Amino acid sequence: MSTSPALANSRPRTAALSICRLIGSDPKQNGWMGISPSIRPIFPPHAPKVPDIMTQLAVDSRVVARLTGTLPEGGFEEGTPIWACDAPGLLDPADAPETRLDAVPLGEKLAFLMEDVITRAEAARFIDLTESLGYRDAAPGIQTPPGMRRNKTVHWIAPEAAMAELHRRMKSLLPATLEGRALSPRLSQRINMYRYDIGDEFNLHTDGDWPGFGLSTDGTGMAQWRGTHSMLTMLLYLNGSEDGIIGGETVLYDKGEAGATITPHTGRALFFRHGQNRASVLHAGARLGAGTSKYVARINVMYDLQSVAAGQFEAPRCL
Ligand SMILES: O=C(O)CCC(=O)C(=O)O
Ligand SMILES: [Fe+2]
């Protein structure tokens, strides 16, 4: 799956006609394709202003895995990093907003929204922290055909405490069971963050389903969990139209037609079914037209592999 430099530079804007899948496994090892990833400056001029509180966020960042990364216009980058960091103040339980559930009518398909999952200050911390890790072209461990994902990305293992607080805020609003499987007590800590600069987009696809990931006991490596597997995509918007974003909506499809258009707002989260099954929701991230860069976190909501009917609950364990 190689792409000539001429095609790589032309960046055609037409939406992909075929249904593409974001596979939840490592891309095929295909070697270095000679396209060097452009790594952005730490704070691009159009990034939202971050409040002073950001400077108080103690961050000790380290690489916990290196995987083959897929480049937006085709080709691969070997050794694309997955990061971890200690950021104790990322989410503040004392400052938790009142999270609310909102319906998204999408025919037979399951999709819903939550408002005020995180505060503006917390969203700014996510942006600041991930900008300090560095957004890049290559996405580690996911496979996208050329021209489908046109944005910058950083993948990281978020702190356990932050993910536990996020889960606590949403738990009562998430489906307790899905297709006979019980909601797992924690979210995967592996977050794919995306930054869309003007002109960037994510063409039509369905998301892959994933095992959960956290850190090894000594904190130096990424560890895969057993007993749990994702069933829902959560897209957490870290900024939005109130920051001047024009375009960049997430469009959900039902029976091949656009069924719902979700405008990014800070602290809003969109949920929908994913994986290789008929319930999976086809969707796209619309082209960012103007304004400031859009930031979104792709998070996996986990359900136990054991069925509810079995009457047993197995907590996730590290492999
Ligand atoms: O940014 C968006 O609106 C869509 C992102 C997306 O589809 C994904 O992360 O899988
Ligand atoms: Fe997606």
What would your notes on this structure say?
- The strands form three sheets. Strands 2, 3, 4, 5, 6, 8, 9, 10, 11, 13, 14, 18, 21 and 22 form a 14-stranded mixed β-sheet that branches. Strands 1, 7, 12, 16, 17 and 19 form a six-stranded mixed β-sheet that branches.
- It contains three helices and 22 strands.
- It has one domain (53-318): Jelly Rolls (Sandwich).
- 46% of the residues are buried.
- The protein is 10% helix and 38% strand.
- A hairpin with a 5-residue loop joins strand 2 and strand 3 (76-86).
- With 319 residues, it is mainly beta.
- The structure holds 2-oxoglutaric acid and fe (ii) ion.
Supply database-style keywords.
319 residues, mainly beta, Jelly Rolls, 14-stranded mixed β-sheet, six-stranded mixed β-sheet, 22 strands, 10% helix, globular, disordered C terminus, binds 2-oxoglutaric acid, binds fe (ii) ion
